[in-house]
Backbone:
């Protein structure tokens, strides 16, 4: 399926569910993709990309961001604290804030830099033991602690179980913190 068809399906879904046109952001996952394929999608106008690995992003995105200044690169994989400084230099957003040790180190690094990427708290919506993320019942307290660290939180990043049907996903979302002022929720 090509980029035009994917964007068309997103537009149709926005209409079908009463969403504002353009309110859904497509994050094209570029991890382990051939460079020519990512470049072709950039040339077609896609500007938001997700990467799982700091090292892989460091090898290609500085040059592409120079050539496409409106491109955004989002960290969508687990972030190791020993890669944090480099991640803060590379990424416009980090979607995997999932533990207190990472939040504390992020806060120190961001204060030292004076700039912050967009930050999303990863929520383990299915409470699956094999997945990372804050459990839904712990989300309120974690959000409050992160805000106490002066972290600029954009929203939540939730990955439901693959077997979960959309109505159940909606019920879980309603249980998650809604009065937090978040502008965004990412679903993977």
Residues:
């Amino acid at each position: 399926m090509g980029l035009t068809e994917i964007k068309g399906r997103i537009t149709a879904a926005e209409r079908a569910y009463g969403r504002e046109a353009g309110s859904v952001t497509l994050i094209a996952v570029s991890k382990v993709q051939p460079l020519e394929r990512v470049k072709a999608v950039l040339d077609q106008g896609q500007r938001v990309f997700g990467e799982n690995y700091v090292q892989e992003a460091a090898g290609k995105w500085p040059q592409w961001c120079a050539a496409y200044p409106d491109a955004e690169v989002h960290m969508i994989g687990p972030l190791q604290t020993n890669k944090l400084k480099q991640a803060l230099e590379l990424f416009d957003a980090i979607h995997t804030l999932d533990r207190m040790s990472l939040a504390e180190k992020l806060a120190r690094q961001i204060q030292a830099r004076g700039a912050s990427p967009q930050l999303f708290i990863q929520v383990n919506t299915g409470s699956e033991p094999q997945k990372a993320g804050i459990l839904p019942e712990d989300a309120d307290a974690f959000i409050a602690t992160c805000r106490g660290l002066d972290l600029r939180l954009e929203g939540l990043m939730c990955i439901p179980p693959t077997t979960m049907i959309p109505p159940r996903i909606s019920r879980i979302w309603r249980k998650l913190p809604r009065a937090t002022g978040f502008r965004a929720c990412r679903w993977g």
Notes: The radius of gyration is 17 Å. Residues 1-75 form one domain. Residues 47 and 71 are 4 Å apart (CA to CA). The beta strands are 28-29, 48-51, 72-75, 93-97, 118-123, 153-158, 184-187.
